[in-house]
Design a protein that fits this description.
The complex is a heterotrimer of chains A (297), B (283) and C (303). With 297 residues, chain A is mostly helical. Chain A has helices spanning 23-53, 59-62, 76-107, 112-125, 129-143, 150-174, 178-186, 191-218, 223-228, 248-256, 261-296. Chain A has a domain at 77-243: MetI-like fold. In chain B, strand 1 and strand 2 (49-60) form a beta hairpin. In chain B, the strands form 2 sheets. Chain B has a 6-stranded mixed beta sheet, with helices on both faces. A 4-stranded antiparallel beta sheet of chain B has the order 2-1-4-5, covered by helices on one side. In chain B, helix 1 packs parallel to helix 12 and helix 8 (152-162) packs across helix 10. With 303 residues, chain C is an all-alpha fold. Chain C has a single domain (80-298), classed as Orthogonal Bundle (MetI-like fold). In chain C, helix 3 packs across helix 9 (208-224), helix 6 runs antiparallel to helix 9 and helix 11 (250-259) runs antiparallel to helix 12. Chain C is globular and about 70 Å long. Classes of the chains: A mainly alpha (297), B alpha/beta (283), C mainly alpha (303). Chains in contact: A-B, A-C, B-C. The interface between A and C is large, with 84 and 81 residues.
Chain lengths: 297, 283, 303
């Protein structure tokens, strides 16, 4: 059966038709704009914050306690609180997180328990941070009787960061080639010796990078700490593990919540300091990653 | 010649013999038949490595031309230059000319999309669209080109009959395209290409992933189709080329070694390299 | 030779066993955390429902547990969360999907390598900063164009949240688009499709499940977001679908009570856990659906 014998000949479009400015170019432009808009918004955000913060970016701001008078209020207590909190959190999260990662990567047999642990970690990564705050409130503040203290806050944050630290550490452990482990075994080491002397030293930079990135996120966390009872007006430096405290993002939140614009200026200044701290931490992490690539590749 | 080589030649001769009557009448037609496609010093590169080194090859209208050669000789690259698909590879470059009915498809100002609307292609591995039903797959070309469809069911039936798939799928047209067997999927892809009534159908090793029964069906199909379509087929299976094609071109290392009517190329090849290839000495 | 005569049957050193158990305990911490969350939430929620009936919780349309005339209907908080989430997801999907298409189909490789990490930065900005921006910049700006837009509203934080979750949707959608096999793209182009046609009729439909999972994860993130809404959306629980008025989301309520003087052990105190439980169940369900969707895609059961 011939397809063209009885049917009228198809109209063939010329080969040159359709070139030039077309719907495709317009669509491509729209997509590019869509990609650029959020980045531009980020730029606007940074410029706006800097602009608002300018009058209060002074040494006095960094070294004062909060006050009812916006011109006198400063972030000293908040900075101290953040610093102590991060250190305590790191002290708790790093051993447990790295330990769990080592267990999962090096020791765990493929069993139901292992799958359950991994399922839990993936799940916990998606739980809103404020839920961790409720956990901290119920468990650390009340049941364990730690009260609204630095220790309770740090423990809560440690649990929050755990999935991230575990994930990053596992990635780092995976980059160590299997041949290195085999070499360690072949030299008569048992598993922990091999890990301690061969694997871990090789991937410490990678693990460190992951930890620093988690901490960079942690200094910006607010919700769980509010729930656990970090105060919003702290006019002293924390003096013990059980001392009440505040952190920089909560101080910012407190100032933003006040109706007076002068406090908003303080909030903006606090934001600038917070962003600078995060930039430094991220910078350190990236520098570590670059150094790592240079050493081992 | 070694025994195996003689055996290879004999077997090919037998295949060609079987088509003797058909092919004898062709030599008269061949002299006057129009050239549907014609390449003129076609060169192609992948980045800095040159895959085609100047191929000048006529393709006759409503005949089947087979491109054979060892792997890496450039057959797939060649066929992809015929519908401007080669340029999708990052770093790809084409020089020379390819004439479709006397118009160079690589001329400045030519819209490659238009070329592909007239030159269809069937791939080595069947690639029906998994998100579409069988019917929608057949009509996919229309939707992709934003053409109006009148009597979609009729069009689909006609294309599926041409691809010898209609009887097997007429009751299950709404099933996903990927629910068919491998051989059926490939025929579905052929139907999909035919639905657009292209002038030329390019087939890049269409049966190499299929079992012998499906392969036979597809070869049968091609012999029917050549009454209405110009077909270019790339194949690494010489028996297949001997069975279905009217002309065979032998490519080696990016160059056209020989183009001749199939019976001639397989029984008395003009070039010693062709002879070496068809007797299995390499490739 | 130092090792001559060494018995092959020497017992395993004790350190090895100790290390194993220590590490196992570390691994079990994740299970402990989940158990802890469920236990804490459940414990207080049970206490809550001993004083407040399900009918009240799901049937009442007011939420006023801190006032003298107490109502415990969850709907005002729920609709507030949904309202801000919808605004956020619409923004993030609209911009993010187009960005994903640009990165996957149009952008040259070098540009893509620069833009992708830049977009990730959006996810790293602390949420208090976004909240500040929403309250002090976006709301006043929008007030110039939208009549009746209150100082606290759902629109402003919704838009800013959308920018915050954009990297989730853009990045995961781009992965999904990237995963569409070359054979399908080739098939479309060989049939004479233009770039637009191939994208809309073949590539996007094929990546549909992956994009769906991305959207669900974005929704989950928006539902759980606290600071942006606590700062910019307000603290007035109100059953409304009007994005221009102050509202209070599930998360903002928890913050409000935590900042106050509610004594522990009271009914008011247990409300934050009941709300928390609601939030937890919602995000759990969303994450499970997204996770199963992605699992099935990886296994090849879906396109």
């Amino acid at each position: 059966m011939s397809a063209t014998a009885t049917a009228p000949p198809r109209v063939r479009p010329a080969l040159t038709e359709g070139m030039g400015f077309s719907g495709e170019r317009i669509f491509q432009a729209i997509c590019l704009i869509a990609t650029a808009v959020p980045l531009l918004l980020l730029l606007v955000l940074v410029v706006d914050v800097l602009n608002d913060a300018w009058p209060r970016l002074t040494w006095q701001f960094l070294t004062s306690f909060p006050s009812r008078h916006p011109e006198l209020a400063g972030v000293l207590a908040a900075l101290a609180g953040s610093a102590y909190l991060i250190l305590l959190t790191a002290a708790m999260a790093i051993p447990v997180g790295v330990g769990a990662a080592i267990y999962l990567e090096e020791y765990a047999p493929p069993s139901r328990l292992t799958r359950l642990i991994e399922l839990n970690i993936n799940n916990l990564a998606g739980v809103p941070s404020i839920i961790y705050g409720l956990l901290g409130l119920g468990l650390f503040v009340r049941v364990l009787g730690l009260g609204r203290s630095l220790l309770a806050g740090a423990a809560t944050m440690a649990l929050l960061l755990l999935p991230m630290v575990i994930l990053a550490s596992r990635e780092a452990l995976r980059t160590v080639p299997h041949s290195l482990r085999e070499a360690g075994y072949a030299l008569g080491a048992d598993r922990w010796q091999m890990l301690r002397r061969v694997v871990l030293p090789t991937c410490i930079p990678g693990i460190l990078t992951g930890i620093i990135l988690s901490l960079a996120r942690a200094i910006g966390e607010t919700a769980p700490l509010i729930t656990v009872g970090a105060l919003t007006y702290v006019a002293f430096l924390p003096d013990s593990l059980l001392s009440p405290f505040t952190v920089l993002p909560i101080q910012i939140f407190n100032w933003v919540s006040r109706p007076q614009t002068a406090f908003h200026t303080n909030a903006a200044a606090g934001i600038v300091i917070l962003l600078v701290l995060m930039l430094i931490l991220n910078g350190v992490a990236i520098w570590l990653r670059v150094r790592l690539q240079r050493r081992y590749l | 010649m070694a025994t195996s080589e003689i055996a290879a030649k004999v077997s090919l001769s037998k295949t060609v013999e079987a088509r003797k009557v058909e092919l004898e009448s062709m030599s008269a037609a061949e002299a006057t038949a129009p050239r549907k496609l014609r390449t003129e010093d076609l060169r192609a590169w992948y980045g800095t490595s040159q895959a085609l080194k100047g191929i000048t090859l006529p393709i006759l209208d409503r005949h089947i031309t087979a491109i054979i050669g060892p792997s890496g000789c450039g057959k797939s690259t060649f066929i992809r230059c015929l519908n401007r698909m080669h340029e999708f590879v990052p770093g790809a470059r084409v020089e020379g000319q390819v004439f479709l009915d006397d118009q160079d498809i690589y001329e400045a100002g030519v819209n490659p999309v238009r070329v592909r609307q007239r030159v269809g292609m069937v791939f080595q591995k069947a690639n029906p669209f998994p998100t579409m039903s069988i019917r929608d797959n057949v009509l996919a070309g229309f939707r992709l080109q934003n053409l109006a469809i009148r009597d979609g069911n009729g069009l689909a039936e006609k294309a599926l009959r041409q691809a010898a798939l209609w009887e097997e799928v007429r009751d299950v047209l709404d099933r996903p395209g990927t629910s068919l067997s491998g051989g059926q999927q490939q025929r579905l892809c052929i139907a999909r290409a035919l639905a657009l009534e292209p002038e030329v159908l390019l087939m890049d090793e269409p049966a190499s992933a299929l079992d012998p029964a499906s392969t036979a069906k597809i070869e049968e199909l091609m012999t029917e189709l050549k009454k209405d379509y110009t077909i270019v087929i790339v194949t690494h299976n010489m028996q297949q080329a001997a069975r279905v094609s009217d002309f065979t071109a032998f490519l080696l290392l990016g160059e056209l070694v020989e183009l001749n009517p199939t019976p001639q190329l397989f029984t008395t090849p003009a070039d010693p390299r062709t002879e070496a290839y068809i007797t299995g000495r390499f490739g | 030779m130092a090792s001559a005569g060494l018995s092959l049957k020497a017992p395993r050193p004790r350190t090895e066993r100790v290390v194993y158990w220590v590490l196992l305990v570390c691994g079990l911490m994740s299970i402990v955390t989940t158990v802890g969350i469920v236990a804490v939430l459940l414990g207080e929620t049970v206490g809550f429902f001993q004083e407040v009936s399900f009918a009240q919780f799901f049937g009442d349309t007011q939420w006023t547990p801190l006032f003298a005339d107490k109502h415990f209907g969850i709907w005002p908080l729920l609709t507030a969360t949904l309202l801000t989430t919808v605004v956020a997801v619409v923004t993030a999907l609209g911009l993010g999907l187009l960005a994903a298409v640009y990165l996957s189909e149009f952008a040259p490789e070098r540009l893509r390598r620069v833009l992708k990490p830049l977009l990730e930065i959006l996810a790293g900005v602390p949420t208090v900063v976004y909240g500040y921006f929403a309250l002090t910049f976006v709301t006043p700006l929008l007030q110039k164009f939208i009549p009746g837009l209150a100082g606290f509203n759902a629109l402003s934080p919704g838009l800013v949240m959308g920018v915050m979750i954009l990297p989730i949707i853009a990045s995961l959608s781009e992965d999904a688009l990237y995963a569409v096999p070359a054979s399908l793209r080739e098939g479309a182009y060989a049939l004479g499709a233009s770039r637009l046609s191939a994208i809309f009729r073949v590539i996007l439909p094929s990546a549909f499940s992956g994009i769906g999972a991305a959207v669900i994860l974005g929704v989950s993130r928006a539902v759980g977001e606290t600071m942006i809404v606590a700062i910019a959306a307000g603290q007035q629980p109100r059953l409304t679908l009007d994005p221009r008025v102050p509202i209070e989301t599930l998360t903002a309520y928890i913050v409000q009570v935590s900042l106050g003087d509610t004594p522990t052990g009271t009914l008011e105190y247990s409300t934050i856990f009941a709300v928390g439980m609601t939030l937890f169940l919602m995000t759990l369900a969303l994450n499970l659906v997204a996770s199963r969707l992605r699992g099935r895609i990886l296994k090849g059961e879906l396109r």
